[in-house]
Amino acid sequence: MLSDGRIDVQVYATGNRDVRMDIQFMPDADAIESVDMRPDVNFAMVEMHMDGLTPPLELVEAGVWRVNLKLPMAGLWIVNVGFGEEFAEVQFDAP
Question: What CATH number does residue 31 fall under?
Answer without folding.
Answer: 2.60.40.10
